[in-house]
């Protein structure tokens, strides 16, 4: 199916056989892809004994497939469906990036200003460091501090007010924006920056600028939002020979910009359609251009087999989104894991595809499924060159 799918998707069939035949071939390839992915999804979750999950596949402005597997909670009969709400963990960072870039383009917030300008209670080791650590360096995971700083205190259920004073202990390991340094505590302060620059709550800003216009009807923020949903997947952790339901925790929810969103696969399909450029009245081309810019290079080469085909594949972090540069194209994505949930979201502007994966257990099936999907969809180096050559000929 892999070779056949790539043949239909990337050869200029419309020029060779006519638009109607090309469209039929592509539709058939999409149906085959969706059917095979459903099989892969069910098999992977069944093998790992994951209680439940949901997914969405989009192409351009269409939802190709919405699927689900299993139950919302072990020992209960309620099934997961495409509207079941899951925690999004660090996928929430993509919403923060979207909001902050919107505010910057409207002149409400300056990404180049020190974070302390918007969060006066933030105290770092000295005044020079406070001036250097700006909003964009935190948004792009390039603050320069040791990775996951004081995240153990979030795990220990400490509040932001208890953790914030500890940031004065941070010593840089590199200058800002010079090295990748993943953070949750610092990233969480970006919500305060949005609030200070607008006078509105962070949650209400994302709701009015993203959730509502994209009709993400089940999306919410925080533990209260999750518990209020009648159709929610409960988290599971390993217990004995299988998985056991655990009570959702408030700890990472207290940092909403970093890990506060709840949403369903159907919600996120609409989000991806907008990220692919098909809702310009909500996400403008200028906004998407900034969100798609690589800023901080991540160490090492991307590990999936699909990337090994490309000599110069590299991984980056942008304004709230991760990305892989391969050849002249990029794949944008983010994943997460928190207290019994494992989400994943990604999209590829060059192919027009997007993928959502949600599970209510921490087994790493999303990585395997995403790797399989993009192996089918992304062109190999030879097809990528052929596609670029065809585009150049058409431009002459």
What value does the Rg take, in angstroms? 21 Å
The tally of beta strands, per DSSP, is 13
Distance between the termini: 34 Å
CATH architecture label: 3-Layer(aba) Sandwich
Summarize the structure.
Helix content is 41%, strand content 16%.
Explain how this protein is built.
- With 396 residues, the chain is α+β, with helices and mostly antiparallel strands.
- The chain has 18 helices and 13 strands.
- The chain has one domain: 3-Layer(aba) Sandwich (Beta-lactamase).
- The radius of gyration is 21 Å and the shape is globular.
- The C terminus is likely disordered.
Task: Name the descriptors.
396 residues, alpha+beta, Beta-lactamase, 8-stranded antiparallel sheet, 13 strands, 41% helix, globular, disordered C terminus
Protein topology:
Elements lengths: L1 H9 L2 H5 L1 H29 L4 E8 L2 E9 L15 E2 L4 H14 L21 H6 L2 H5 L11 H5 L4 H4 L21 H4 L1 H9 L3 H10 L8 E2 H7 L7 E4 L2 E4 L10 H4 L1 E3 L1 H14 L6 H7 L4 E2 L7 H4 L5 E4 L4 E5 L2 E7 L6 E7 L4 E7 L6 H12 L3 H15 L1
Antiparallel strand pairs: 1-2, 1-13, 3-7, 4-7, 5-6, 8-9, 9-10, 10-11, 11-12, 12-13
């Amino acid at each position: 199916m892999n070779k056949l799918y790539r043949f239909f998707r990337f050869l200029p069939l419309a020029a060779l056989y006519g638009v109607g035949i090309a469209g039929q071939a592509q539709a058939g390839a999409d149906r085959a892809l969706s059917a095979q992915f459903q099989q892969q999804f069910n098999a992977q979750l069944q093998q790992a004994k994951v209680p439940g999950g949901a997914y969405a596949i989009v192409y351009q402005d269409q939802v190709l497939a919405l699927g689900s597997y299993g139950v919302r909670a072990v020992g209960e009969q309620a099934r997961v469906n495409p509207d079941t709400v899951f925690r999004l963990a660090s996928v929430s960072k993509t919403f923060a990036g979207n909001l902050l870039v919107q505010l910057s383009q409207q002149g409400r917030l300056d990404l180049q200003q020190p974070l302390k300008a918007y969060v006066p209670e933030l105290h770092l080791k000295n005044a020079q460091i406070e001036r250097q650590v700006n909003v964009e360096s935190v948004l792009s995971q390039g603050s320069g501090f040791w990775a996951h700083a004081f995240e153990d205190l979030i795990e220990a259920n400490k509040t932001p007010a208890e953790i914030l004073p500890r940031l004065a202990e941070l010593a840089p390991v590199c200058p800002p924006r010079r090295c990748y340094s993943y953070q949750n505590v610092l990233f969480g302060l970006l919500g305060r920056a949005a609030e200070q620059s607008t006078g509105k709550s962070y949650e209400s800003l994302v709701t009015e600028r993203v959730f509502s216009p994209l009709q993400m009807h089940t999306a919410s923020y925080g533990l209260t939002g999750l518990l209020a949903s009648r159709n929610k997947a409960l988290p599971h952790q390993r217990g004995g020979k299988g998985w056991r339901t655990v009570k959702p925790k408030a700890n990472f929810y207290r940092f909403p910009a970093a890990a506060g969103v709840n949403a369903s696969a159907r919600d996120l399909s609409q989000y991806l359609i907008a990220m692919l450029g098909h809702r310009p009245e909500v996400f403008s081309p200028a906004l998407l251009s900034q969100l798609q810019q690589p800023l901080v290079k991540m160490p090492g080469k991307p590990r999936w087999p699909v990337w090994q085909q490309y000599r110069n594949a590299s991984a980056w972090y942008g304004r709230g989104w991760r990305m892989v540069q391969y050849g002249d194209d990029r794949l944008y994505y983010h994943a997460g894991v928190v207290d019994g949930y494992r989400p994943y979201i990604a999209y590829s502007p060059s192919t027009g595809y997007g993928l959502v994966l949600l599970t209510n257990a921490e087994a790493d099936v999303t990585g395997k499924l995403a790797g399989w999907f993009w192996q089918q969809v992304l062109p190999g180096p030879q097809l990528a060159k052929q596609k670029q050559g065809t585009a150049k000929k058409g431009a002459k």
